[in-house]
Each structure stands twice: as structure tokens, then as C-alpha cells.
Amino acid sequence: MAFHLSPLLAVPIWHRLRRLGGPGLVLLGVADNSIIPLTGSMDVLTIWLAARHREPWPYYAFMATLGAVIGGYITYALARKGGKETMERKLSRKRAAQVSKAFGRWGFFAVAIPALLPPPFPFVPFLIAAGAGQYSPKKFLGALTLGRGVRYTIGAGLGYHYGRHILRFFDQYYKPAMAVLIGLAVIGAVLSLVQYLRMRKK
Questions:
Q1: How do the domains of the chain map onto residue ranges?
Q2: Which residues 6+ apart lie within 8 Å of 139 measured at CB?
Q3: Exposure string over 57-91, b if 16+ CB within 10 A, otherwise e
Q4: pLDDT, tens only, 18-77
Q5: Torsion of CA 188, 191, 195, 196, to 10 degrees
Q6: 29 with 74: CB under 8 angstroms?
Q7: What is the pLDDT of residues 178-192, one digit of tens each?
């Protein structure tokens, strides 16, 4: 029986990523941790791949984490090079101040906890703030790996153990799932674009 965990996976690009398996998760992870995140896409693909049982589910958890860490570090490195000017250019002053305050208070956990939280929690601002604030690269990588690792390990484990039920649910509620997932992705992209245009205008 064919199941459709997400209608997004039926789009040509998703079909290709799905066929790539683990490497597809790495590519998607790089894109998902960019300035315009693909909200919920990593979680959906990780669960779907783990549910298919073609590879041991820890493999998919690892590849998803690897992709997220690579993508997150690229964003961090670019912000680190640009300094605080980059953070103020990418984020509003109010948002930049809030994130900076969180780093000043929580440090390591200001990266680890947001990395663990599921969508639609915005994570890219924390990547930018970590880089712009010259946060330690080693601590950043440790926090990012911890947060994303736990998140995708849980997702892949659920996909493996409850995959058939999860896939059947999404197959049954195909259209609502499509509306929610596409809606989240569009909202995330639009908000990021609007924020960027506002900052550029200022």
C-alpha cells in the first residue's frame, strides 16, 4: 500500500530527496537552516524515511542531524564574519536585542533548546545571533548537535516504531496535511522575506 506522509513529498524536488534517502536529508538540512527555512520539512522527511525501514532508523537520525549542523554552521559562519551589523540587518532591532539577551543569560542552552523545539519555532535568528555575537564555534557546534540530534532521534524513532500508523493517518488526512505543511512553509518564507525587505529599506 502506498502512503503519503506529506503531499510536499510528491513534488518533484521532494521526490528526488526522498529517493536519495540519507544524503537527501543532508541537502535538505542545509537549505532548512538558511535564511528562508523550510518549516517542518526535515521532520517530515526524517519520519517518512525511518518509517520505510530501508535503513536502520538511527542512520536517518544521524544524517538529518548532520545536514542541520552543516546548514546551521554555514549561517553561523556568515553571521560571525559580518558581526553585529549582520544581525541588525537580518533581524529587527527589537528581535536582535531579545536574542542577544537570551545568549547573555543562557549561553549554550540559547542554541541547544531552540534547536530542539519543533516547528514553527523560529531557529534561524539564534544561528545569526550566535555568529554575530562571536559565540565560541566549539560550543555552538556542541549545542547545535545536541539539540538537533535529540530532535531528529525522537522523530526517526517515532517514524520507525509507529511508522505504519503515522503514514496511514497522513494518507487518510492527505488534504488537511498538505494545507498545514504548505501553509507553514509559505508563512515562514513570507515572514522572512518581509523582515529582510524591511531591514533593507531601513
A1: 7-201
A2: 107, 108
A3: bebbbbbbbbbbbebbbebbebbbebeeebbbbbb
A4: 778 788 899 888 888 776 666 677 888 888 888 877 788 999 999 999 999 999 999 899
A5: 50
A6: no
A7: 566 556 656 655 655
